[in-house]
Amino acid sequence: MFDRHAQTLLRPALNTAARGLVRAGVSADALTWLGFAIGMAAAVAIALQAWWWGLALLLASRLLDGLDGSVARLTQPTDAGGFLDIALDFVFYASIPLAFAVATPSTNALPAAALLASFIGTGSSFLAFAALAEKRGLTDTALPGKSFYFLGGLTEATETITVFAAMCVWPEHFAVLAYGFAGLCAVTTGMRVWWGYRRLQARANS
Length: 206
Hints:
Layout: H1 3-23, H2 28-47, H3 51-74, H4 79-103, H5 105-136, H6 157-169, H7 174-205
Helix pairs in contact: 1-3, 2-3, 2-4, 3-6, 4-5, 5-7, 6-7
């Protein structure tokens, strides 16, 4: 819901940092891999109940996730890079609820499972529409330059990272945060399925 606003706000700073990285010869794919590695370190820290380390590593990972796109747009975006970015992002997003479940399985396992199940809905509806939008020649005018057609919703990357950060700050409230966010993800899935179906149906009839 807030991704477009967050990107507008952060874009100048990201572009400035990206120009320095391009001059230093750092590639977008290298940043993608580094961000993923730090994200996995965040998951390990959370699993070990090192909450503040987990938070710091999580935020650093997502900063690099923003920088890789900025570097790609300043150089030469590739389909391979776009695929790598989205594939590793989905692994990262799944790893954080799993890490909280490992940290305290007696209280966190079921809410983590509910959250992961909700991620299946948001992720599958997003990727299925993106594949068919490409086939039908649909473009996303709201977020141009992306490798995929980004369907919006209540729970996009900005909201997900905010909730993950809140879980690190208040790990004792993980279950409430996980169930609440899973509910919002379910609403997002419904919105995406309905909007995507109607959009593709309208395209087929045009």
